[in-house]
């Protein structure tokens, strides 16, 4: 018998882009907003510059790719412990692809490129295999309707 647990997350978003005329015209309002989560620093957001946004602020597309990358990393670190693999460094250069048309848009895939450094006495095969387990355990990857590919590289520290 499976036990389910409910988890809830509260995010407050405030649009800060009213330049005096609200949304009277498409060009007449800013895309700026603030994302607040109690007890955490405020995140300044906007839309992608392609959609009249501020390139110096985070946009929803950035945040979605970030969520997938960080979720995989955290899931991977857990799987590494279970596999007896000692990770000493982890970086990722994640990339997302989105397509738009006259009806809107959607992500077509996200590709993660984690580079994982492990100790010399850790098993590189187990380090590689932990990525598959991490991917299947990632809550965010399990929640999206497009492929999330993981193309890892394992680096073994010299003794």
UniProtKB/TrEMBL annotation:
What InterPro entries does this protein's entry cite?
KH_dom-like_a/b, OsmC/Ohr_fam, OsmC/Ohrsf, OsmC_Ohr_Peroxiredoxin
> Which Pfam families does the record associate with it?
OsmC (PF02566)
Record protein name field: OsmC family protein
Species assigned in the record: Dyella kyungheensis
